[in-house]
């Protein structure tokens, strides 16, 4: 149940020195990615990110995806991680200082709006958004901004809950799962309101097909949506 709790609320993983033997991400090469960590790594596994690249993580929150991007681009690369929450950025920066990995120094935390990215056109080799697009009010503008700041031929990878259209998946993931499993558990943690928000935000989100269409409408040359975890999650990959 803890897994569900952490994955749905996206609480930051404890950093070294906070009761865990390792940091928010595996410190040891080959360390296993499980649960939340597996999901965090997923958007990166669907696009090519090379050493030396400049990448952006939009709606970075406390930085899980940015830390993984940082490991991929290495010390010769650069990661810009953007969020409009000062508080989240502060948590991310604190986690960065608590880590000893040299590459994490390549992350710069920027306070900004996903719908008005403060970067020049064609700045990035790759872009990611984890559980962010669903929460953005003007998603079209955010997609336009993403298109603008990517270099031609580069990709954005967008992970979130899947607003499924299949009746089987709606049964498993959408209403049934949240009403009969997630909310009762959350109530025990006095977190029911947050899960109710999750449910309503998934309802207001776009289906995979709608995400593909939006990406093409704003100019991406290719857009493909992948259902993950029996349709509970979904990842859109779009190529500028
Ligand atoms: C559910 S959290 C996800 C954080 C992180 N990507 C992760 O996977 O843990 C969503 C984040 O999106 C940010 N956010 C929502 N709308 C935004 C916007 N328009 N511009 C920048 N950040 C935004 C919130 O502040 C929050 O940190």
From TrEMBL:
The keyword Calcium does not apply. Keywords: Methyltransferase, S-adenosyl-L-methionine, Transferase. GO terms for molecular function: methyltransferase activity. It comes from the Eukaryota. InterPro entries: SAM-dependent_MTases_sf, UbiE/COQ5_MeTrFase. It holds the Pfam family Ubie_methyltran. SUPFAM superfamilies: S-adenosyl-L-methionine-dependent methyltransferases (SSF53335). GO terms for biological process: methylation. NCBIfam families: MenG_MenH_UbiE. PANTHER family: 2-METHOXY-6-POLYPRENYL-1,4-BENZOQUINOL METHYLASE, MITOCHONDRIAL (PTHR43591:SF24), METHYLTRANSFERASE (PTHR43591). This is 2-phytyl-1,4-beta-naphthoquinone methyltransferase, chloroplastic.
């Amino acid at each position: 149940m803890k897994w569900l709790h952490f994955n749905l609320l996206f609480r930051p993983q404890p950093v070294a020195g906070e009761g865990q033997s390792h940091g928010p991400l595996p410190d040891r090469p080959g360390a296993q990615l499980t649960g939340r960590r597996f999901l965090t790594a997923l958007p990166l596994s669907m696009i090519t990110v090379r050493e030396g690249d400049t990448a952006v993580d939009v709606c970075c929150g406390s930085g899980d995806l940015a830390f993984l991007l940082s490991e991929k681009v290495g010390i010769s690369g650069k990661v810009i991680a953007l969020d409009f929450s000062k508080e989240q950025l502060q948590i991310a920066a604190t986690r960065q200082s608590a880590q000893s990995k040299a590459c994490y120094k390549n992350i710069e935390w920027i306070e900004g709006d996903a719908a008005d990215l403060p970067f020049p056109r064609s700045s990035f080799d790759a872009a990611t958004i984890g559980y962010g697009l669903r929460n953005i009010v003007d998603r079209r503008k955010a997609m336009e901004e993403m298109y603008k700041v990517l270099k031609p031929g580069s990709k954005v990878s967008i992970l979130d809950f899947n607003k499924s259209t299949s009746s089987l998946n709606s049964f498993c993931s959408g209403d049934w799962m949240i009403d009969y499993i997630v909310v009762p558990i959350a109530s025990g943690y006095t977190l029911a309101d947050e899960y109710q928000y999750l449910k309503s935000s998934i309802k207001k989100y776009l289906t995979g097909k709608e995400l593909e269409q939006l990406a093409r409408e704003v100019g991406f040359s290719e857009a493909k949506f992948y259902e993950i975890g029996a349709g509970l999650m979904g990842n859109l990959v779009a190529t500028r």
